[in-house]
Amino acid sequence: MSMKVPRLLYTAAQSRAVDREAIEVHGLPGPLLMARAARAAFDFLLARRPDIAAAPQPFQILCGPGNNGGDGLLLAMLATARGIPTQVLLIDGKPRSADAAAAAARAASAGVPIADYVPGRLGATLGDGGVIVDAMLGTGISGELRPPYRAAIDEINSASLPVLALDVPSGIDSDTGAVCGAAVNATWTMSFITPKRGLHTGAGAAHAGDCVCDDLEVPEAAYEVAGPAFEALNLEQERQNLPPLRTTAHKGHFGRCLIIGGDHGMGGAIILAAEAALRSGAGLVRVATREAHIAGLLAGRPETMVTAVDHRNALIPLLEWADAVVIGPGLGQEVWGEQMLHAALGCNKPLLLDADALNLLGKQGPRSLPPGSVITPHPGEAARLLASRGTVDTSAVQHDRFAAASQLLELWGATVVLKGNGSLVLGTGLRGLCLDGNPGMASGGMGDVLSGIVGAFLAQGLPGSQAAALGVVLHARAGDAAVKEASPRSLLARDLMPLLGTLLP
After folding, report:
1. Where are the beta strands (DSSP E) in 269-338?
2. Which region is the signal sequence (predicted)?
């Protein structure tokens, strides 16, 4: 096997282009690639489940009529040769591609039991153990599933057995991550040649389980035909953009970050954002908030400067002081929040806009934001920011997160962080996807911490796209570090604070 950590994440069309290049230009025939895929998947299963070979447990391999099914048929041949009880069930008729038909002939000659899938048959033959292999569709899905696939997927998901999906869990659109009516819940997904971008965000990530990719020894030159692809964010790479810590430095060299928010009853958000900015290297952090929150801020984070602001005119000198501005945590959508946002939008400083700043923007409609600005919506906020393009709801955003992020970038002209499982970052020269993070981070205050982190990097002079990319991956890695010793269920936003410094240079 030749598995690598994904660096670039591809669409189905890009993947097909690389496949063709490998076959037609680099002399790797389709049957050879199919055999390598089967071997990679079989070796992966033996490595993950060594008990399979020690005390043979049955393989149930569901194969579609395309080349994904051909991969499954050759995998069945390898398992049979190893003495593992194996059953192939054909979905939607006999193989239709020449390579898949050849694979079926080889498997049959090797004594692999092959039968047509009949709804209800899978559950009757599984028994209490074994492994299911999904080789039904791969990237070859368009629109809603037809009945035989839906029935098979329902049976697979009801079986309570480990499932290996080949290339893509059947029912997942590998471009968007959307579920096409129903989708296999895979334990593992092994992609071939190219990592598929839809498996790493939204519902696609939830169905794919643990993802690996085997390049099947396709040379790097074959990938050039694919063109620009989404990039998996890498902390070690992104943090190289930070300014160096010179021995002659003073606090003014690392930027002045102003954080605006904390209307009545919402002071916690601003405290989290302020500490995150300090922990992420901002030289000076000032908070503009309601007077009621000053004592709590100074007691909790005495390194922060705090100013009570009751109207927009009082904010002007603070905006002039700042190198970058964070607005949104605890801002509220009442008159005070509207006034603060109006003043911030009038300054010519990079803005990080989150939470209620985004909700207020959505009510106002698209406008030009200061150069270097970043918006960090969750799917609900993204839907409100896209309202000018018609009725958009959260489910529409989640159905195609890539399209939603692209529309936000086009509409607002600022770097976009579309938060969620597999956060997307789109900006000048960047199309990034975060592979890090965990479900425990779906808790109150996490977005405020991210706002403070990105705001600190803007204050240190990073362009919007670099600040957002570094902030997103640092935030996610800190969340992962925080759950190494405790359950994700108990994770608090403030648990990330002491870990930020362990991940920065």
Report:
1. 284-289, 305-308, 324-327
2. none
Q: DSSP string spanning 348-410?
A: -S-EEE-THHHHHHHHH------TT-EE---HHHHHHHTGGGS---HHHHHHTHHHHHHHHHH
Over the stretch 47-72, which tens digit does the pLDDT of each residue have?
998 888 777 789 999 999 999 999 99
CB 440 within 8 A of CB 479: yes
The H or E element spanning position 295 is helix 294-300
* Residues placed in the known binding site for K(+): 68, 134, 170
Name the helix (H) or strand (E) containing 41: helix 30-48
pLDDT number for residue 5: 58
- Which residues does the annotation place in the binding site for AMP? 419-423, 447
Annotated binding site: 67-71, 134, 138-144, 149, 167, 170, 269, 330, 378, 419-423, 447-448
Q: How far apart are CA 101 and CA 338, in angstroms?
A: 65
Which fold is adopted by the domain 235-503?
UDP-N-acetylmuramoyl-L-alanine:D-glutamate ligase (3.40.1190)
Q: Could you read off the pLDDT of 422-467 as tens digits, one per residue?
A: 999 999 999 999 999 999 999 999 999 999 999 999 999 999 999 9
The domain 8-228 is classified under which CATH number: 3.40.50.2000, 3.10.350.10, 3.40.50.10260, 3.40.30.10? 3.40.50.10260
Rounded to two decimals, the pTM is 0.95
| Residues of the chain under the 50 pLDDT cut | 1
Q: Which two tokens stand for residue 16?
A: 């097909």
Three-state DSSP class for residue 47: helix
Smallest CA-to-CA distance from 405 within 180, 202, 179 is with 202
Give the closest residue to 166 by CA, choosing from 208, 201, 197.
208
For residue 123, what pLDDT is reported? Answer: 62
pLDDT of residue 125: 60
Copy the structure tokens of residue 344. 């911030």
What pLDDT is recorded for position 129? 75
Give the per-residue pLDDT at 248: 85
Domain boundaries, given as residue ranges, for the chain:
8-228, 235-503
d(CA 259, CA 261): 7
Q: Which residues are annotated as a binding site for (6S)-NADPHX?
A: 67-71, 138-144, 149, 167, 269, 330, 378, 448
φ, ψ (nearest 5 deg) of residue 74 = -70, -30
